[in-house]
Amino acid sequence: NMDSTLHYIHNDSDLSTNSSFSPEEERKSKVQDVVPQALLDQYLSMTDPSRAQTVDTEIAKHCAYSLPGVALTLGRQNWHCLKDTYETLASDMQWKVRRTLAFSIHELAVILGDQLTAGDLVPVFNGFLKDLDEVRIGVLKHLHDFLKLLHLDKRREYLYQLQEFLVTDNSRNWRFRAELAEQLILLLDLYSARDIYDYLRPIAFSLCADKVSSVRWISYKLVSEMVKKLYMASTSAFVVDLLNELVEKFCRCHKWSGRQTFVFICQTISEDDCLPMDQFA
């Protein structure tokens, strides 16, 4: 059945689901013809709390880990069989279960397509953004992979929330900020010059002044890529304003570390050919 399953997966026609099922319709909504129904029923029962007590305390985590594979096998036309189970796992009391889903939500989005992703995955994604750092890091590590699957207007909504990634449960969790800098480099391709200047620039400058050198080094690369992107966008006002702010904020900083940051950013801009030399000068 794999050929027909893959055909369904790549078919863009998403089936709408009715949220007000009767018990009989509820049972029918879990029926499909790709795998033996008894096997699927056993899988769906892994979220039953009694199973955690009698079979394995981490059975819900195993269920969450396998869910993208099950979704791929069933195809997007059978997502209605898994939707309730996914939402149950997404609100599980154990953070390890939610973390597992957070790390794979971008893969599931590819399987389901943009319509189902917007309707069923985006609300879960938004919930993970406000979760514990252990869960948020799963979303953050694949932020670009998920956002690039959304429509532009939906994608722009997340510009307002990127600033929140600078705040962590533990301020010593510098790897979180380093990952944010890495993701922002990738996100430059998804947003306009104005969005980059208005929303990503303040975050980048904040990361350049981080207390941890590993975060700062990635941030220098982020700023240089930002300079290149703004210059290539042929909106000279943005790149000139950005360069002036670099001079004002770092070159003329009263702390030696700020002035050192300016030198390192200049080095990165120069090495990566982000600006023509006359503009650089």
From TrEMBL:
Keywords annotated in UniProt: Repeat
Highest taxon of source: Eukaryota
Chain segments carrying region Disordered: 11-30
Organism: Nyctibius grandis (Great potoo)
GO cellular component: cytoplasm
MF terms (GO), sorted A to Z: protein phosphatase regulator activity
Full protein name: PP4R1 phosphatase
GN (gene name): Ppp4r1_3
